[in-house]
Amino acid sequence: MQDQEKMQEQADQSAQVQDAAAAEQSGEGKDGLQEKLAAAEARAAEMQDAFLRAKADAENIRRRAQEDIAKAHKFAIESFAEALVPVKDSLEMALKLETPSVDSLKEGVEMTLKQLNSAFERNRLAEINPVPGEKLDPMKHQAISMVPAEQDANTIVTVLQKGYMIADRLLRPALVTVAQ
Predict the structure, then answer these.
(1) CB 157 within 8 A of CB 149
(2) What is the pLDDT of residues 121-175, one digit of tens each?
(3) Which of 79, 144, 148, 173 is the most exposed place for a label (fewest CB within 10 A)?
(4) Three-state secondary structure along the chain?
(5) Using 50, 70 and 90 to split pLDDT, how confident is the model at 97?
(6) CB atoms within 10 A of CB 79
(7) Whole-angstrom distance, CA of residue 133 vs CA of residue 159
(8) Taking the model in full, what pTM does it have?
(9) CA gyration radius, the chain
(10) CA-to-CA distance for 90 and 87, rounded, in angstroms?
(11) Residue 22 pLDDT grade (very low, low, confident, very high; cuts 50, 70, 90)
(12) What's the mean pLDDT when you consider all of the chain?
């Protein structure tokens, strides 16, 4: 019986040691969990801050892009306008002449036309001036009428008005008459 009592005492002691160890572990476990929780909260706060900063950066980029687009629309024709100012100056100077001769007017108009052509070239504004006999291109020409002619059908007979393109975009088609 003493053996049983000893075994019982040892079992009780062992249970107490296990209870104490469990209590210590649970205490350390709480501290460990609290540390993990604090670390997770700090990480979440960092992520929140990073998210807010990224959101603010994206908003600033969007706002700057809108401002750039607005400026581009507002000043899109600035270079073209700068090229046309000398043409206007030339026309005003021609009108200031008190006794212009036909020759001087013609010379002034020719010079002004050269300035205008130069402005068109610098700003990629190209003439569409088809020659008679050229095949009708509906992407560049607008047929006003069909006339009987000794040419092939659907070829240009006369040009009534030149057309214009800006870069690769049609601004105004050339008005033409075509052969039947």
Answers:
(1) yes
(2) 998 999 999 999 999 999 999 999 999 988 999 999 999 999 999 988 999 999 9
(3) 148
(4) CHHHHHHHHHHHHHHHHHHHHHHHHHHHHHHHHHHHHHHHHHHHHHHHHHHHHHHHHHHHHHHHHHHHHHHHHHCCCHHHHHHHHHHHHHHHHHHHCCCCCHHHHHHHHHHHHHHHHHHHHHCCEEEECCCCCCECCCCCEEEEEEECCCCCCCEEEEEEECEEEECCEEEECEEEEEEC
(5) confident
(6) 12
(7) 11
(8) 0.59
(9) 44
(10) 5
(11) low
(12) 86
Instruction: Write out the two tokens for 68.
Output: 């750039």
The torsion angles phi and psi of 56, rounded to 5 degrees, stand at -65, -40
What single letter denotes the amino acid at residue 77? I
Residues found in the chain: 180
Range with the largest mean pLDDT of 12-16, 71-75, 138-142: 138-142
Residue indicated by tokens 């062992």: 14
